[in-house]
Each structure stands twice: as C-alpha cells, then as structure tokens.
C-alpha cells in the first residue's frame, strides 16, 4: 500500500503544477514553495478511499482558477472613445469607468442620446465639447437670458459649483460672466460693503448695463433704470466673474435667479442681444500628464486611469501599462492576482492534509 500511496501523492503534485501554470501570473512566485512543501508531505497509512475526496476537491479548485479571467480588470480601448448624439466623447472625458482622466470621472452621462454633465450644483446639457480650445458649452434650462427672465424668491437655476478636488481640472472660462438677479441686501456678495457693491463689475465687456436693455425685462414687468451698480441697495443685477467668488450657488447667495453669457469672438457683440448665453467651462490637465498621454498614444495605446488608485494608465488592449505600450516591464498589476494567491494557499492546504 505504501508505494501506491507515494505514487498517488506524486500524481497530486503533478496536478498542482499544471493548475498553477494555468492560473494568473501573480500566483507563480509561490509555485516553488508549494511544490517544495508538497514533496515533504508525510506519508501516512491513509487508504486510497480517503485520498480520493481530497483529490476531487483539488481538481475542482483548479477548474475554477482556470475559468476565472486574469485580465478582468482591463478596459477595452474601443469603448473609451464614444459618441452621445452628435457629440464625440474622448480623452480626458469618458462615459465608461477607467477611461479618460481621473479628474473627469463620474462627470458625463449619455441619457437618451443627450450628453449631460453632473456637478453638486445640478445637471447641465452639454451643447459642445471643443477639444482644440479645451472648452465645454453648457446649458441650464432654468437660467435667464435676453428673451426671458426666470426668477423666484427661493432662487432659480443651478449656478455653478464644482467639487474642491475637481476644481484644478474644471472651471468657468475667464470670459464668462454670471449675472446674478434679485440678490438680497443680506447676500454674502455685499457683506462688509453694503453700499459699494465691490464684486459687481463688467466681465469681458459684458455687464448689467447692457443686460438691462434686453426685451425680457419688458415681459418681466420691471425694467431697471439708471447706472447698473448705482446707489440702489441691493442692485437689481450684479455681474461677476467666476474668479471673484469661486462658486455660483444661487440660493446660498440669496439671489432669485441668474444668467450667464460668454464671448469667444475677438469682436465684442453690440448689446446683450448678441451675447452667447450659456456657461463656457474651460478644462485643464496636469503638466505631467501631457507627456504621459503623448507617449501612450504614440505607441498605439489609449490614455485612461486606474479606477482604484486614480493613477494614469496606458490601455494597450488586453493589458495595461503605467508608461506606454512598448514597455511591457511597466505592466500594471492585475487585481486578479490576489484571488489566485488565495486559491494557491487552498491547494497547499489540501495537499498538506493528505
């Protein structure tokens, strides 16, 4: 019986070796330890009938390990560049996890072929993505313009508020003006300077003086008169840039509504009727990222990020790299390695038990 038992244990070790070579590469460093330990297993007087259940369990675990894909954490590069309606969604933006830059994750959503951008202040329809000049054009349906004034005591419209961690990547353009309407005297805008209205000023030639000429004020029933920022406390309209207040929260600023306009043309429009209404947002990437993404694309990869560490990744098809697709030495570790190591430990336990 003893020679037969030793022959069976040798067969078990062969099965273990076969299984481990089929499992994820993260398990292979433990191969030498497992095989070495299995060669020193004590030979007992157990019967062949007792060994068969353990061998069956061993084979089942091997089958599970071989069935689990080792590259499950990888992102298909064909999904990263996509479309929503007639708008192209490409780096640094994305609609799928792991694509794009981590600073723009969980930002864009495609709903019924309409591209939407979501921030703490609300959701906006994306009208345009300008990759050449790094700009987004957003529309807030509750925002006033030159044709209609939309106000309520509790505040109307989203305004614009971005998460602190996202602020380095996304902010309204310096040439974008926010026209805050019907703000109370107790608004944080005027605290400390109740009769001077220091934050209110024209932005890129656009301000409340021209906005008062819009036909929307006739329909509203009360057209402001006199200087835009005169002695009235508070003014009917206060024009501010994003850089002056860093957050346009309509209700927190105690305003009834707002409008937003931007200018891209070198020649300023004559009057508020010629302004482009909406929120023009500029986006930026860290300087270090530009070299990384350029090298990734030059080697046929797609720029993405690790969904857990938020670090840059170059997506190379069936594997990911932390540098570029020509450098397999920088392959990103797969999250499947940990489960594989756990399975290897179970295999060792089974062999050690009999």
UniProtKB/TrEMBL annotation:
Residues in Wall-associated receptor kinase galacturonan-binding domain copies: 80-139
Chief localization: membrane
Cellular component annotations (GO), alphabetically ordered: membrane
UniProt keyword Signal present: yes
The entry's keywords: Membrane, Signal, Transmembrane, Transmembrane helix
InterPro entries: WAK_GUB
Location relative to the cell: Membrane
Transmembrane spans: 23-43, 55-77
Keyword Membrane found: yes
Membrane topology per record: Single-pass membrane protein
GO MF annotation: an example: polysaccharide binding
Source taxon at top rank: Eukaryota
PANTHER family: WALL-ASSOCIATED RECEPTOR KINASE CARBOXY-TERMINAL PROTEIN-RELATED, WALL-ASSOCIATED RECEPTOR KINASE GALACTURONAN-BINDING PROTEIN
Annotated protein name in UniProt: Wall-associated receptor kinase galacturonan-binding domain-containing protein
Upper taxonomic lineage: Eukaryota, Viridiplantae, Streptophyta, Embryophyta, Tracheophyta
């Amino acid at each position: 019986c003893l020679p037969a038992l030793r022959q069976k244990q040798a067969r078990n070790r062969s099965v273990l070796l076969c299984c481990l070579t089929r499992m994820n590469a993260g398990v292979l460093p433990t191969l030498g330890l497992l095989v070495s330990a299995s060669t020193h297993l004590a030979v007992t007087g157990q019967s062949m009938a007792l060994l068969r259940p353990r061998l069956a369990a061993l084979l089942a675990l091997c089958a599970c390990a071989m069935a689990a894909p080792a590259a499950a954490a990888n992102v298909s590069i064909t999904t990263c560049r996509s479309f929503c309606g007639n708008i192209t969604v490409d780096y640094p933006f994305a609609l799928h996890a792991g694509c794009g830059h981590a600073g723009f994750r969980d930002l864009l959503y495609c709903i019924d072929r309409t591209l939407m951008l979501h921030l703490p202040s609300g959701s906006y329809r994306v009208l345009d993505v300008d990759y050449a000049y790094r700009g987004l054009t957003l529309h807030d349906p509750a925002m006033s313009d030159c044709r209609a004034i939309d106000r309520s005591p509790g505040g109307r419209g989203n305004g614009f508020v971005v998460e602190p961690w996202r602020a380095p990547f996304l902010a309204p353009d310096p040439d974008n003006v926010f026209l805050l309407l019907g703000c109370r005297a107790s608004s944080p805008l005027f605290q400390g300077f109740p009769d001077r209205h220091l934050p209110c000023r024209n932005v890129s030639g656009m301000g409340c003086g021209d906005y008062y000429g819009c036909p929307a004020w006739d329909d509203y029933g009360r057209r402001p008169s006199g200087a835009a920022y005169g002695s009235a406390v508070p003014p009917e309209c206060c024009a501010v840039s994003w850089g002056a207040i860093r957050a346009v929260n309509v209700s927190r600023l105690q305003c009834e509504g707002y409008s937003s306009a931007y200018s891209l043309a070198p020649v300023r429009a004559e009057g508020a009727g010629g302004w482009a209404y909406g929120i023009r947002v500029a986006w930026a990437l860290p300087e270090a990222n530009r070299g990384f993404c350029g090298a990734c694309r030059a080697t046929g990869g797609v720029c993405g990020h690790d969904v857990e560490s938020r670090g840059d990744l170059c997506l190379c098809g069936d594997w990911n790299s932390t540098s570029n697709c020509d450098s397999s030495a920088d392959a990103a570790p797969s999250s499947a390695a940990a489960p594989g190591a756990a399975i290897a430990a179970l295999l060792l336990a089974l062999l050690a038990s009999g």
